[in-house]
Amino acid sequence: MAKNNNFEIRPEQRQSWQSIAAIWAGGMICVPCLMIGGVLSGGGLSIAEIIASILIGYGLICAYMIFIGMQACDTGLPVSVMASGALGEKGARYIISIILTIACVGWFGVQSATCGSAFASMLAAMMKIEVTAVMKAICSIVWGVIMLATACAGFKGLKWLNYIAVPLLVVVCLYGLIAGIVNNNGGSMIMNYAPEASNGMIFGISMVVASFALGGVISADYCRYAKSRADVVKSSIVGVIPAGLFMLLTGAMMSIVTGQYDISAILASLGVPVLGLIALVLATWTTNVTNAYSGGLALSNLLGLDESKFKITTGIAGAIGTVLAAVGLLDAFQGFLSLMSGLIPPLAGVIIAAYWVVGKGKKENFRVKEGFSAVGVISFVAGALFACITGGTFANFPALVEAVPILNIPFFVGPVNGILLSLVLYVVLNKLFPRKAN
């Protein structure tokens, strides 16, 4: 294996599969997962379709997550280095940086809007006034600035808030669900829930895949600490599926009872006390600092700046996310998820193809390629475009689809289509143009 051996972890740094699984479970217990559960029920899916979508969606993520994780376990390398085996050093740098920047800035905006909405609900309840869009926007900006300042300052005490916020959010979710069932005749509503029109399982699976698409790709950064390939498999399945099923299903059921997927509005309508909304703010705060920080580092890498400038780029990334929150990114949540489901999974396709098919899954066959790998970049771009076309991503832009109808041809599951095309195309192009792959 050539170059970048300085990135490899040492044997004594290897961790148990349980500790890695705990990282994934902690990542799944978050506000966006509740919201996505609400999106599924809001899309008219039945309870059975929701459960099936969750299991299939996270099953698909675990499948490519495991292959990427096992490669990371073999090589001891993070995804940014692993991807250079398929995309070339510059290809990996720019493509991954662009994707991470878009994802992190977008999630920062979504979570700032969620936090602002929750805080506005608290203020309205205390002052006994009606929540307005302006009030939500102002609160989103205020909390966006607070979270951004925390990310730039590196407030280490936030990790202790996380230890409180995650368990508290689980308790609040259970309380909210029980309150809805007991006080709002929710049990009957859930039992009799029979939507007239459903967006279908394809919609459900795509939304679920989008919820953790990025996590599945960057799983290498954590799975490289696993002791064996078997530990990668166990940590991925045990860490993702149970927690994901619990959070999405809880969000879906609370949405069925209230008829909306804005989690702060759901908790307020269910009569959850102020403590519940505080838990929501804390959980969003601790998660969003990571979004701002990661987005800033990705932007630094994209612009060719060293890590010492991360405060500047973190400020830029967070400021963009805060503006998006204020102008209503939360309302475009489904569109953002659709974009993520199209752009991210195909990256896994080329990484898997390069290591497991072309490299036959052997560590000694892996090597970093200089510059751009035309085969890798073309395969990824084609896969991402195909995923967006068949997954309905462009349907969020009606004028564009009207002008170019071929941009929206729903077929099977967009993210899966993208992975398969990028994987197969990489293998074929690698055989046709072996020099271009190097």
Automatic annotation (TrEMBL):
Q: Where is the signal peptide?
A: none
Species assigned in the record: Bianquea renquensis
Spell out the molecular function terms from Gene Ontology.
cytosine transmembrane transporter activity
Record carries keyword Mitochondrion: no
Query: Which residue ranges traverse the bilayer?
Result: 21-44, 50-73, 94-127, 133-153, 160-182, 202-223, 235-257, 263-289, 310-330, 336-359, 371-397, 409-429
Q: Which InterPro entries match?
A: CodB, Pur-cyt_permease
Identify its membrane topology class. Answer: Multi-pass membrane protein
CDD domains according to UniProt: SLC-NCS1sbd_CobB-like
Q: Please identify the protein, giving its name as recorded.
A: Cytosine permease
Q: Which domain of life is it from?
A: Bacteria
Tell me its family.
Belongs to the purine-cytosine permease (2.A.39) family.
Keywords attached to this Swiss-Prot or TrEMBL record, sorted alphabetically, are: Membrane, Transmembrane, Transmembrane helix
Q: Which Pfam families would you find in this protein's record?
A: Transp_cyt_pur (PF02133)
**GO CC field:** plasma membrane
Q: Where in the cell is it found?
A: Membrane
* Chief place of localization: membrane
